[in-house]
Amino acid sequence: MERLFNLDAQLLHDAVLLAIAVFVMFLLLSYLLFNPARDFLKKREERIKGNIDSAAKAKDDAEKLRAEYEAKLRDIHKEEADILSAARKKALENEAKIIEGAKAEAAKIIERANKQTELAVKKAEDDMKKEIITVASMIAAKVVSENIDLTIQDSLIDDTLKEIGDQTWQS
């Protein structure tokens, strides 16, 4: 046998067997160690991607919830303004009703006071007429009792009317 690169056949044979053994060992270890390590790394990579995706989704959901919350706050502020406006309007209406009722009550009170005043005036006039009638009766009694002539009687009546006043007698 001839030597290759000045190497003997046994060395070449051992080198080829060693290369085959390393290749077989590489395949075996690749199957037993590298593939599970690759699977582990792949699963870890997928889990990290899933976490990143779920974090991005959670962030998007949080943004949506924040936007929804802000929209609800705006709606609540608008509703609050509407409620306050309606309450103010109702308060003004109630105020107007109360004022109107008070004015009506005041008008009734004034009307009653005027009627009571008129009644008091009429009562005073009636009392005065009764007094006049009483005075006239006393004059008539004097006239009849003294048997005064007609000129004296007329002068007595005229004097009495002047004392009482023409307006009182005519009313």
Helix and strand layout, with pairings?
Blueprint: H1 9-146, H2 150-164, H3 166-170
Helix pairs in contact: 1-2
Question: Can you tell me about this structure?
Answer:
The protein is 92% helix and 0% strand. The mean pLDDT is 86. With 171 residues, the protein is mainly α. It is rod-shaped and about 200 Å long. It has 3 helices and no strands. The chain has helices spanning 9-146, 150-164, 166-170. It starts with 8 loop residues before the first helix and ends with a helix.
The tally of helices reads: 3
Radius of gyration: 64 Å
Oligomer: single chain
Report helical residue fraction: over 70%
Structural class: mainly alpha
Order of helices and strands: HHH
Q: Kindly report how far apart the N and C termini lie.
A: 175 Å
Question: Strand share of the residues?
Answer: under 5%
The residue ranges in which pLDDT falls below 50 over 5 or more consecutive positions are none
Largest sheet: none
Q: Can you give the mean pLDDT?
A: 86
Task: Please report the total strand number as a whole number.
Answer: 0
Basic shape: rod-shaped
